[in-house]
Amino acid sequence: PAATPSAPRRRAAVPPYKKILDKFEDVRSILGTQKLSLAEKILYSHLDNVEDSLLTNTSNGKNIRGNANLKLKPDRVAMQDASAQMAILQFMTCNLPSTAVPASIHCDHMIVGEKGADTDLPNSIAGNKEVFDFLESAAKRYGIEFWPPGAGIIHQSVLENYSAPGLMMLGTDSHTPNAGGLGAIAIGVGGADAVDALVDAPWELKAPKVLGVRLEGKLSGWASPKDVILHLAGKLTVRGGTGLVIEYHGPGVETLSATGMATICNMGAEVGATTSIFPFSKGHVPYLNATGRTAIIDAVQGIAYGSEKHNFLVADEGTEYDELVTIDLSTLEPHINGPFTPDLSTPLSKFKDAVEINKWPDTFGAGLIGSCTNSSFEDMTRAEDLVKQAHAAGLKPKSDFFITPGSEQVRATLEDSNTLQTFAAAGGTVLANACGPCIGQWKRTDGVQKGEENAILCSYNRNFPGRNDGNPKTMSFLASPELVTAMSYSGSTSFNPITDSIPLPSGEAFRFEPPKGNALPGSGFSIGNPDFLPTSAKPDSSMQVVVDPESDRLAILEPFEPYGEGELKDLRVLYKVKGQCTTDTISAAGPWLKYKGHLPNIAENTLIGAINAETGETNVAYDSDGSKSSIPDLAKKWKSQNQSWLVVAEDNYGEGSAREHAALQPRYLGGKVILSKSFARIHETNLKKQGVVPLTFADKADYDRISANDSVETVGLYDVLQSGGQGEVRLKVRKAKRWGGV
Ligand code: F3S
Q1: How far is the CA of 478 from the centre of ligand 1 (A)?
Q2: Which atom of ligand 1 lies closest to the CA of 462?
Q3: What is the fold, at CATH topology level, of the domain defined by 17-330?
Q4: Which of 165, 402, 420, 693 could covalently link to 280 via disulfide, CB atoms 3.0 to 4.6 Å apart?
Q5: Residue 173 is a catalytic residue
Q6: In the CATH hierarchy, which fold is given to the domain comprising 571-739?
Q7: Which of 108, 193, 469, 623 is catalytic?
Q8: CA-CA distance, 184 to 262, in Å (whole number)?
Q9: pLDDT, tens digit, for every residue of 594-638?
Q10: Taking a C-beta distance cutoff of 8 angstroms, is the pair 166, 277 a contact?
């Protein structure tokens, strides 16, 4: 339907197309008629220096993917409340009057889901007031649009307001690729990367390879966009997309709605992809219209498909992909993925057997729909259709039923269409427009105890142990909102709504018809509560950024002490780590998340999960006099004595999430070098960004020759850093007395 906006709206954020296309002309002048994928077109059109990036490390621009180091200038940045704190604190150290590119902050992660939006939202605001006040005041000062708690989840608000075909943006959240559903290149990053864009420094990315996913046919019946990505996750596994952009193409694309495409891109994060993207297509036009962005439709005319001049918003005909997967939407079955990992994918028709074979619980306690992944008007009206069918048969859900709208715009529109009232009448609980149960902020009231094995079904995107309710024994299964809704009426994991019936008291049997819904509201989206609209993007230098000096959750960052010229001398080994050392080992999550904006407080968890290679103890460090303490305590002691230090570690140091605190904390405590057998790529970059030197052993066996408290001096490091940062460095090591030295 060609919906029209229902109320006056904010001015549409139109990407700087002229600038982007001028850059694309530069790209063409270097690469000629070389066939390019859509992802390449958009990425390369955002290069700071096209020639420098495309011709360095490549054979005259022929083998860019996987080789070139792209220095990019994104168009915009979005940040969620948890990660925005450190991003803004780092931005503040740059002393700039405003951000270099448009930016937004979205308060969504720190809001609980328990009783419903009306009580949960005020309680969460009260509990996090100082953090929200800080973010709002900083946003006003630097001209960042601030979306207050309750306004919506970052990715849904971005899709409704900022994403557009051809845009390139960074977001401080791993599901930022959701915006790729509307034809943008949107990449999830850490705070320091976001700051690169905010201060107009080029942001670096190794040119990704491109995985093409060709969609054929058309979804029908119970199959939904969610099933495309649940199926793909099973095929690729959680690591299958590493270093790749997933680019969808083929005739099936034209059959999907914009929000359906966003769902598919959202969960590209679950296969480790750099991002995912759809070409500008039929489904985009009514969505842009309904969200009040006709200006974007006008702007992309002439640069989209079929345009002789640019053909910019689609891949070139005959593009070669590094890998290719084909999915026939016409024969795609609904899938259920999990538990504990999003790539354990089972077609619905085989799920009953899987439950039996794996001895998964046959009942589940809660069905949860919505979140940033699946809260579109289409998702919700299809779920509503099922609720109405069940209601007409006199049924109520057997399990608890929770609904999380992704934004105030969606929530208000669903209220106008009576959809939320239908859910509530069925006994569903409508939670705040926020992350809530998706990020462990779910206060369960159904009596399930921590440690108790149980199952839940949700339409979210992640299902690692403890993700939803903090209980590592909760088996979370991922499915489409339609499947979650229908199965909630039986409460059984073995129930297949396509083939099975639910017995009615009358003795008859009730079977669901396939769900029907509307891609968009007939008369456009409502704006909803105007209090949830964002603050102005105009910087206000008179605004004071609010940080209470007594706060234990926020602390203004002091710039780190710069390194002097020359070699690093008199470093001492603080700790020699044995075995795996993830970012969680270096900076634990859980209760520590509260201190994300307070570097001194969160630094109290530095390396507390690390095993001492010499004693086998965890988080027990020894000073040179033999006295023992925790690792953070010894680091703090050495910092107070101006004793710089290094950590020695084994392979893949810093694997796991991209948590930048794992690099910030050692730097804050006086760490200057991490010496390991190898590094996880993102963590190595994070260390460099924070000024910690990552060194790898030329001979891994040398790990055995260095011990805690040894003194270390670099030879050649300064020259290496002066000449681009890669090269051989020697270490002079003086053994500590304890280890037979002097
Ligand atoms: Fe929030 Fe979960 Fe999405 S934490 S941003 S709803 S993945």
Answers
A1: 14
A2: 7
A3: Aconitase; domain 3 (3.30.499)
A4: 165
A5: yes
A6: Aconitase; domain 4 (3.20.19)
A7: 108
A8: 10
A9: 899 999 999 999 999 999 999 999 999 999 999 999 999 999 999
A10: no
Non-local (6+) Cβ contacts of 480 within 8 A are: 222, 224, 226, 227, 230, 334, 374, 379, 459
Tokens coding 223: 């199959």
> 147 alpha carbon to ligand 1 midpoint, in Å?
15
Count of positions (residues) in the chain: 742
Q: Kindly tell me if the per-residue pLDDT of 682 is higher than 90.
A: no
Question: Does the C-beta of 372 come closer than 6 Å to ligand 1?
Answer: yes
The C-alpha atoms of residue 32 and residue 54 are separated, in whole angstroms, by 12
Q: Is the pLDDT of residue 9 over 80?
A: no
Q: What pLDDT is recorded for position 118?
A: 95
> What does the alpha-carbon distance between residue 507 and residue 167 come to, in Å, rounded to a whole number?
57
The response to whether residue 173 sits with its C-beta less than 6 Å from ligand 1 reads: yes
H/E element holding 81? helix 81-92
> Which residue, by CA, sits nearest to atom 3 of ligand 1?
372
Among 105, 109, 153, the mutation site with the greatest number of ligand 1 atoms within 8 A of its Cβ is 153
Contact in structure between 733 and 710 (CB atoms under 8 Å)? yes
410 vs 284: CA distance, rounded Å: 17
Would you call 34 helix, strand, or coil by DSSP? coil
With CA atoms as reference, report the closest residue to 578 among 687, 703, 712.
703
Report whether residue 154 contacts ligand 1, using a CB cutoff of 6 Å: yes
Q: ipTM of the assembly?
A: 0.99
Tell me the pLDDT tens digit for each residue of 472-513: 899 999 999 999 999 999 999 999 999 999 999 999 999 999
Q: How far apart are the first and last CA of the chain?
A: 80
Q: What is the pTM of this model?
A: 0.92
- Determine whether 382 is an active site residue: no
Give the CA angle between residues 80, 86, 91 to the nearest 5°.
100
State the average pLDDT for the chain: 94
The domain segmentation of the chain, as residue ranges, is 17-330, 333-510, 571-739
Catalytic status, residue 28: no
109 classed as catalytic: yes
Which of 249, 335, 659, 667 does the annotation list as catalytic? 659
CB 371 less than 6 A from any atom of ligand 1: yes
CA 470 – ligand 1 centroid, Å: 15
462 catalytic, yes or no? yes
- For a mutational test of ligand 1's pocket, the pick from 176, 178, 407, 435, i.e. the residue with the most ligand atoms closer than 8 A to its C-beta, is 435
Any idea which fold 333-510 has?
A: Aconitase; domain 3 (3.30.499)
- Tell me, using a 6 A CB cutoff, whether residue 461 lines ligand 1: yes
DSSP secondary structure string for all residues of 236-260: H-TTTTBTEEEEEESGGGGGS-HHH
Of 9, 324, 305, 78, the closest CA to residue 183 belongs to 305
- Which residues, 6 or more positions from 351, have their beta carbon under 8 angstroms from its beta carbon? 336, 493, 494, 496
Please say whether the dihedral angle defined by the alpha carbons of residues 361, 362, 368 and 374, taken in this order, is positive or negative: positive
> What secondary structure does DSSP assign to 380-447, as a single string?
HHHHHHHHHHHHHTT---SSEEEEE-SBHHHHHHHHHTTHHHHHHHTT-EEPPSS-GGGGT-B---S-
User: Ligand 1 pocket check: which of 439, 442, 459 to mutate, most ligand atoms within 8 Å of Cβ?
Assistant: 439
pLDDT for 3 equals 41
Centre of ligand 1 to C-alpha 438, Å, is 6
Same CATH topology for 17-330 and 333-510?
Answer: yes
Ligand 1: centre distance to CA 461 (Å): 8
Protein residue with least CA distance to atom 1, ligand 1 = 435
Residue 1 pLDDT class (50, 70, 90 cuts): very low
